[in-house]
Design goal:
This protein is an all-alpha fold and about 300 residues long. The chain has 13 helices and no strands. It has one domain. Helix 6 packs parallel to helix 13.
Length: about 300
Amino acid sequence: MVSDIIQFVLSPLIALVTGVFLLGLSRKIIARIHRRYGPPIYQPVIDVLRLMTQRSVSHGAVFELGVVFALAGSFVTVLFIPLGGTELAGEAHPFAHGVLCPLSSAGGLLVVMYLMLYGPLGIALAAGESANPNASIGVSRKLLLALAYEVPFLLVILAVMSHYETISITEIVARQQESGWGVLSVPLSAAAAFLILPAMLGIRPFDVASAPQEIASGPLAEYGGTYLGLLAVQKALHLFVVIALFTDLFLGGGVNLATFLLKVMAVFVVAELISAVLPRVRIETAVKFCWKWPAALACLQMVVTTLSK
C-alpha cells in the first residue's frame, strides 16, 4: 500500500522534472545551432516560478477549467506510462518486471491514446472562452493538427498491439526486453511514429498552433500569470508523455529508470536537432503530410504484421 502511494507521487514528479529539463535543453540546443549561447537549462523553472507570482486575468469559468482539464489529463496519462524499472513496482503486474507504472493493470494503449486528447481539448475550451481572434485561429489549427496525427497514430498503435497481441504497455516493454526492440520488430510503425512526433509535440515544422510570429502564440494569447505557468507545466508533462511512449513502444523502455531517461533524452535531442533546421509548414500541408507518409507506413506495417501471423 505504501509503495503504491509512493509510485503515484513519484511517477508524475519524475515526469515533471524530466519534462521541464527537456524544455530547457530544447532552448539551449536551438540557441547553439543558431550560434547563440542561449538561456540556462533551468530557465523554464525560473519562468514558471515567476509566472506563479504574477497577477492572472480570467475570462470566465470555462477559461479556468480548461487549464485544469488539460493539466489533469497530462497528469493522469503519466500514471499509465512505464518509466523504467525500479524496486518500487515489485510484482504490481505479472509482466512489469519492476517497471514503475502505478496504473499498469488499469488500462492500455487505447486508454492512453484517449487521455492524450485531453490536453488539446482543454486548451481549446479555455482559449475559446477568451474570444481572441488569434486564440480562435490557434485552436482551430491545434484541433486540425490533432486530427492529422491521430489517424496515423491510431494505425501505429493497432500495428503494435497486433504484433505483440496485447494492449498492455508494460507487457509490450517486457517482451521487447526479451526478444528485441520494437524498432526492429515493427520498423515501419516506428518510422511512422517518429515522423508524427514533431506534430504531437507541437514543434517545428508543425508548430502551426502557436506560431508566435503569426498569431501571437495562438491559444495562449490571452493567458498570463498563474494560468500560463500551469500551461507551461502541462506542456512539460505532455512532452514527456509523448517521448516516453515512443521509448516504451519502440526502444524497449528501460531496465532501470536511468536507462529509460537516457533513451528519452536521446529521442528528444534527435527530434530537436531536426526541428531546429526546418521551417514551419502551413496547416493544410501538415495534414496532408500526416495522412500521406506516416499513415501509409503504418498501414503497410499492419499488412505485414497480419500476413506474418
